[in-house]
Specification:
The chain is mostly helical. It has one domain: BFD-like [2Fe-2S]-binding domain (Arc Repressor Mutant, subunit A), CATH 1.10.10. A two-stranded antiparallel ribbon has the order 1-2. It is globular and about 30 Å long.
């Protein structure tokens, strides 16, 4: 996984940004949106963010 890969083009949020937000307690799409801004403009990346979070959630 490339942490520099952009997952939200509108807000230039990377996979690494989302992982950092998850490490700081973000557990839902809404948390990610509030902490990073990802998905807050057009929303087209919501599915990608949810899938990424599910894949990288700590068990």
């Amino acid at each position: 996984m490339d942490p520099k890969k952009i997952i939200c083009k509108c807000k230039d949020v990377t996979k690494g940004d989302i992982l950092k937000a998850m490490e700081k307690g973000a557990t839902s799409y809404k948390d990610i949106r509030d902490k990073t801004g990802a998905g807050s403009k057009c929303g087209k990346c919501e599915k990608k963010i949810r899938k990424f979070m599910k894949k990288h959630a700590e068990a």
